[in-house]
């Protein structure tokens, strides 16, 4: 009976000590270490308890620490170079040298402190378990919920007075009990959202700590320090749990199901905090890192996929809403570019597509040096003016001048800082795009089964990003982009000539995107007056001429990711239920990309000539014979537009009665296997005849039939 009473007294004593410790900070981030008053009280109670239970009286016995040898910490000083002051006097400088033995002793002391801290936490959990040992699991759950609700209500009612409740909740979130930890983590989300301000709380300087302040200011400072310390520990806990997921822990038997659930719960908590005002609070880079670290690889497990998609949406929302300031965008882009580079660009393309949501760069023009003009307000009529005395008018004029100066100064600082953020974000994004293109060009993938394992799978996202942000780059970087795009196309053609066969759908899309992106980059620079020289596009034009006939053989010419079709059951791209894969952020079909490239060549640049137009018309007729209905109609309309531009220069292709060319035969190019690349200038277009137009007159589609007849009719009318 005496043992039970002593045990109950011991539990009550430890519980009391624990509550007193919770009222203070558990870590010394801003202020010094916690005072040792509570520990001395605990030691006095331990001594009294041990004397009561018949243990040895320590007052009459020599303590262990008194038998230990004393170590004097002597500072070893070494004289450094002297400093000469402004008044001419020379000051002697001494610096302290820390020996290896002294540094090892300090490390041992830190390790001992960490062990003692871990031991105290374990003792607290054991006290809680002993206290609730007589309750059933259901009663324990109810008891835990009631305690968490009580702590949360106290914090909401009076956070400055009950700041110790926040420390208690944070310790409960670190509990080894899964249910207690889970409930505490979820409960702290709305608490931090309501307590934390929409600005950063800086650390107090040493002079600020020593100065005397009022009781209200001291209480507010103590609350803010407690809030920051507990929030940092909470973010570290979320980061620790978020590393564990179902996808990367499938082969690890040591990880339990509770840890997996905590991993997804931690990411969901970080998502909730990122969308709140805590995006402007302290340690937001650590908060964003929790989301971005989960985007290293697209998860294959069903329970990780919603968390992955939600993280993408949260980052896109943050980038879209940060249009005015830019500080959040800089933090996100820095972490993302570093993560993508560390993963060697083996990430999902949806991660790179996040860059397209950057609203900070929408109004950025690096070449504009225009000063912000202030809009003048219309003058009031004499009858609408308020009568003021001479003194009031003078005071009003002075106050207006002061307000105007402050507004202009504040606006200048804001604009300057925002332009600095814009330049930094643009540099990070463009350098990442260039490195991805170089990595993809070194090892282009033609195997569809290897999709998603190399930088070549990010080609569509990068090219779409270049077409949007590329015009903001300087001329030197533009040359690097064009060189990389040219190498990517030539590598695909060279590999195709060695292996033979026809181009795959992925290869055709990549080459069309390279051509469209190169023209888009140069035209955007030209419209801004940034091109001092002319750029040769003959390689891109020849490549388009080369692959025009192969485009018609692609079965997915008019299909996109939104098309209703069955996936290949034998391929690795077989989709899960309800999921559809987006091939690239540029969702245009290959037919749309082809027409876009043709429009760039003949109508939006100076690369269109009569020989090129005639050669392309012949190839486009060959494509129309094999292409689907919608593509054939679009190509016929484009050829009608092309014929109207070059007037009578293309009439010889439709009519052979006026002249008979004896200068050789038309070289189609696709029948020559020994030629590495068909040159557009060598096809002898003057000897070509559009006999495909007669075949199109028997086409099954009435609209295609009418289109071919109208082209023939227009050519005859022009000839007359």
Automatic annotation (TrEMBL):
Keywords: Coiled coil, Nucleus, Ribosome biogenesis
Localization in the cell: Nucleus, Nucleolus
Domain Nucleolar complex-associated protein 3 N-terminal: 144-234
Top-level taxon: Eukaryota
Occurrences of domain CCAAT-binding factor (ranges): 512-706
Primary residence: nucleus
Any Pfam family: NOC3p
Comp. bias intervals (Acidic residues): 38-48, 121-130
Sequence ranges of Basic and acidic residues compositional bias: 8-21
Composition skew (Basic residues), residue ranges: 378-397
InterPro entries per the UniProt record, alphabetical: CCAAT-binding_factor, Noc3_N, Nucleolar_cplx-assoc_3
Segments of this protein annotated with the region Disordered: 1-73, 97-142, 366-402
Polar residues composition bias: residue spans: 22-37, 366-377
Protein name (database record): Nucleolar complex-associated protein 3
